[in-house]
Amino acid sequence: MKFLEYILFYIYIQMFLLILLWKPGYKISFIKIFSNVFFLPIFELILIWSCLFLSLIYLYIPATVIGFVLKFCFESLLLLFNNILKWEITINLSSTLILFLGFSLGFNIVRKVLISRESAFYHNLINKYIYVVILVIILLFNAFIDYRKSGIYFVDVGQGDASVIRTSGKNILIDTGKENKFNNLNLLLNYIEIRSIDYVIITHFDSDHSGGIYKLLENYDVKNIILSAVIKDDKDVQVLQKFIKENSFNTKISFVNADDKYRIKDLFIYFVGPSKNHNERNKDSLCFYTYLNSKTVFWTGDIDFEVEDELIKRNVLHSVELLHVSHHGSKYGSSEEFIKKLNPSKAVLSAGINNKYGHPTPEVVDRLKKYSTEVYRTDTMGTIFTPKDWNKDARKLCESKYLPINYDKIIISAKGG
After folding, report:
1. What is the DSSP letter of 333?
2. Cβ-count burial 331-370 (b if 16+ within 10 Å, e if not)
3. Considering the entire predicted model, what is its pTM?
4. Are 323 and 349 in contact (CB under 8 A)?
5. pLDDT, tens only, 210-262
6. How far apart are CA 204 and CA 209, in angstroms?
7. Which helix (H) or strand (E) holds 29?
8. Which helix (H) or strand (E) is 324 found in, with range?
9. Coil, strand or helix: which one is 331?
């Protein structure tokens, strides 16, 4: 029993340390916990008893023999530990688990200190049901927090593009930013406790939109990647397919055409372009609408005036709440007629602070403001978050079917360059 109490004491210490050290994205090693809980107490006992034993037989055995035995024992133990640590298995700790550990640890301390041992009935009642009650409370609380984190995140990845849509337990990523800015995206994903990504939509293969896809695949469980069908035979696609195959990732690549539609829980995606192959990356960017809670966003990749004119002529544009402005606000996109057709109440510009291209250009910002569009910029605001729900008062004031959005802004990552 004493040994079991000893092990239990170490488990409590490990739980307490996990609670102290935890932060979003914190990873824990099963092997290290197992070693700390089981091997360290055993190692301490062996060390203590070995010292006592050796002190007793020191008078009868030469010191060189004792030294050889000690060296052999310690080297064997170190070899054992090194081999065990090779079986490294790490997991991300969710806030749900940490809350459960915290409540359980606190409850056990209170039970030991405050609850009388004579009240056997209450002891039995508490022992049977308290952990279930704790878990239910935490799951309900976590579901509320998860709902509060649902919405669209326009991530500050410097001079690049990356956005996250989180809704109804599904995670959708639109572009990944540059490879050297992956940490910015990673910080955001850790902050909102995303472990796996259901869909990644790559608008096109410019490095500032897709450079982080390889690190994303290495660090997250990516289930699906959506690409434009017009680039199906491009070299960039072949390189990505080869990378997925060589690393045995369980990731499916799908190709979409103009007018294709996707439904992911309560998120509806309608692809409107490209309708043909322009043989130029920016022009062949995926263009699409996302509809979430009566909130419409139009995504443009890096399209220019030519492609905008094509969309206008095809009559596929309608009013939206939010426009994700093409090519970081380049002067070669966002024509006045294009903005007029979409008539966005809000616009997000993803650009790096003091970037060498001068994005977003003053003429694009002026055109947006001319149509009373509120402009939000990642270079000056950092990561921008629009929640899944909208303000009730604003909803009452709105007569059209396109409801206004209640915006909140959060800055997670460092300013991009």
Report:
1. S
2. bbbbbeebbebbbbbbbbbbbbeebeeebbbeebbebbee
3. 0.71
4. no
5. 999 999 999 999 999 999 999 999 999 999 999 999 999 999 999 999 999 99
6. 7
7. strand 27-29
8. strand 322-324
9. coil
